Amino acid sequence: xxxxxxxxxxxxxxxxxxxxxxxxxxxxxxxxxxxxxxxxxxxxxxxxxxxxxxxxxxxxxxxxxxxxxxxxxxxxxxxxxxxxxxxxxxxxxxxxxxxxxxxxxxxxxxxxxxxxxxxxxxxxxxxxxxxxxxxxxxxxxxxxxxxxxxxxxxxxxxxxxxxxxxxxxxxxxxxxxxxxxxxxxxxxxxxxxxxxxxxxxxxxxxxxxxxxxxxxxxxxxxxxxxxxxxxxxxxxxxxxxxxxxxxxxxxxxxxxxxxxxxxxxxxxxxxxxxxxxxxxxxxxxxxxxxxxxxxxxxxxxxxxxxxxxxxxxxxxxxxxxxxxxxxxxxxxxxxxxxxxxxxxxxxxxxxxxxxxxxxxxxxxxxxxx
Length: 369
Description:
Transferase(Phosphotransferase), domain 1, Phosphorylase Kinase, domain 1, 17 strands, 10 helices, 3 domains, Rossmann fold, alpha/beta, elongated
């Protein structure tokens, strides 16, 4: 039985139909139906000039067609993006309304969703990181243009014959206007950040980063049928550094990397940053946070800190001066770091250095104070 679009009979093209770009004199012969998405229907086609395999997408939505054609031209020849070859309006024989056509490269491995269903084995950390970094470089160019993609999902990322990932489908991508963020009025609910799912009105570049983090998690665990939580990351078979970047990207929205460039910089950093090297001589006047297991009850440690003149805080923030680190906690999300130490890194990126000391140094300062 021949597959057809589930909706929109105007989008159905019989195999063998010739679609013509009359302006440029190009023709495309329909081979088979590939699928249907938010943009419209997609077909495997053969271009006649030059002769090559391609994907021809058709839609009745002129606005979505214009956006995808625009971004395809703006980002032409960017590695890790599906290349757009052609865009035009076409009136089928006997038709009353035009179909808007977009022609792009044919990526042999299909989309990542289907690829992981056929090949569910987790990717190695090295391979996954290499491909995520390639995608981040491409998305950095999108973000630097002032745009957001809003649909970086397994259905819109494709696998080439040599195993590289390519991002496609700019049907709901938009540029920001001035400092005003893009409305969160079009997105794939399953892969959107929780804040968007629960009613946030604006889609930020950080929300694209969240989706990249989810893609990375999908590669490392070999599944993309659901979102991965930050808590699950601690059990991934990868380095603590990768875990910390992942946790930051898919964790709380307010602590996510601001854009793709920030996430890329974190991946490429030679070592985790954040701990100030200055020697702490006194606790007096210091805003202090405890993390990890201590040799004494946490309540007693807080009393000692206050007695020494420190102000104890529950979480790391822009006013924190000092973090006292005990033994590693089983709840630390990134293996070698918990949320508070990840927040120290976050503050360092903002230019706020926070000193870190071990428990024995804290106790020595208490006795000296």
